[in-house]
Amino acid sequence: FSTAIAITEQPVSVSVPVGYSFMLRCRAQGHTSLQYQWFCQCQSDCRLIPGATNQDLPIIAEQTQLYTCRVNDLHRNAVFSDWVKVEVHQCVARGLPPQLWQGEPVIVLNPSEQWVEVGQPLQLQCAAMGVPAPSYQWYRNGNLLEQQKRKKLWIAHAKVSDSGTYLCCASNRHGEHWTNAVDIHIGEQSQPTSLCCTLPATGKIALLVGNNRYQHHPNLMAPVRDVFELSRLLEHLGFQVVSLLD
């Protein structure tokens, strides 16, 4: 019977930088001696890990994958552990995780300020490393958002009342870490562009310089005539022209 085996310690999900070394643990009790076998799943491909027959599975993080452990007894009873996720961050800033990292949350992606039209979707995203993998909680204007407990905050149809200052808390048993606070603007004017692009043009001015006397170069054929012709063209296009010679 499957109840002849009881898993006493489930493996736990982790969120780690690429190249990080760690162990996934599984413990079980049964009426006879037990055998362990680990499996991994990347996308939809589930496969047995050759040689992974110990309670602890050593991993060097390379890509995000799911893992589970099968436990058998001598009577062919078998149970599987929970599936756990090993999330691997490929692009973590240099110097992370900190030295002597104990698995406390470390923010690796902060949300960004946004301008969103009313009725359009609002999506904010953050990410943190941690062992075990952190849980997430979003806040707006200091108030807990009861339904927003993932690293991606999603509001399908934004309302003006969704405007405000947002931030997210990532936490695990070692502590908590907060993202930067960002302002979200719903139904306001679109994101301002640079000052040079927002000010109306008050006039068009062209500066033309015609040089004919060069110290180390032969004189040009007709710079004065060229400046004159170009000035007429620019004035026709609405420019105020300033012409200088030599």
UniProtKB/TrEMBL annotation:
Record-linked Pfam families: Ig_3, Peptidase_C14
Annotated protein name in UniProt: MALT1 protein
Domain Caspase family p20: 202-246
Gene3D superfamilies the record matches: 3.40.50.1460, Immunoglobulins
Keyword field contains Translocase: no
MF GO annotations: cysteine-type endopeptidase activity
Keyword list, A-Z: Disulfide bond, Immunoglobulin domain
The keyword Secreted is assigned to this record: no
Domain Ig-like residue range list: 5-81, 105-185
Annotated GO biological process: proteolysis
